[in-house]
Model the fold of this input.
Amino acid sequence: MSSRDKYAFGIQAFDLSIRVECESAEMRGMLNRFLLPPLERCEVPAGAAQIEIEALEESGGFAIQINAQKISLATNIRDAALAAVKALDDAVVEHLIGLRAVHAGAAKLKGRALLIPASTHAGKSSLVAELLRRGAELFSDEYALVDEDGRVHSYPRPMLLRNGSPRQTLVLPEDLNANFADEPAIVGWILAVDYDPRGAWDVEEISQGEAVMHLLRNTPHEMGQSPEMIHFFSRLAESARCYSGTRGDVAEAADRILQLISRN
Done:
C-alpha cells in the first residue's frame, strides 16, 4: 500500500464512483468533512473511478487535481478544501448520467422543493442559508439535480457563504441547526429573483412556461448535447407555482418566501 492509499477514500454518488487521494491525515480529514459529507465512504481502487480527486502538497501550498489535471493551487488547507469542493462540482455535472443539473438554490419546505434558479454570485446561497435558519432542509445552494420525473435530488455539498466578505467559507447545514434533505421531492415553487441591494421585495406570479425558460438559462448543460433538458424542466415545473422579480434584504426575502409558501 502506498502512502497515498493510506489517505484515500471513495464515495458512490449519482451512479458515479469518486476516489479522493491526499498525502496527509489532516488533509484527508478536511476533505472527508466537506466532500459530499453525508454520503457513505467506501473503498474505490485507484483507476476504478470516473472522478479522481487528488490534493497534493507542493511548495507553498496544495495542488488540487481532477483526473490527473491540475485545477487550482491553494496556499492553505482550508482553501484547498474549498477548491476541491468547487472542482468536484464541475466534475459531477460533467459526468451525470440519469440526472441533470440547474444552477439553483434548492431547499425542502413542507415536503416539497423550492427552487431559486440563478447564476453563481447572485445571492442564492445566502437566501438558502436564511431559509435553513427558519427550518428548511438543504438540497443544494449551487446545483439542483433533477430526474426525468421532475423530482429534485439532494446534492449534499457544503454551502459557500461570503457573510459580507469577498472570501467564501464552507458552511454545513449543521452549522445552521439544519439538515441535508435525504429524500427527493417534487417541486412546489420556482422563484426566479434577482438581488437588488437597494431594492425591496417585488415579485409576481409567472407561467410554468416562463419558469422553464428561467431554468434553461441557468443550466450548465449544452442544449445541443442534452436536448432532453426541455422535458426534464417541463416535468419539474408542472407541479409548481412560479414567480419572478427582485428582492432586497435576505431576511425580509426569507420571511416573504415563507408567507408565500404558507398560502399555497
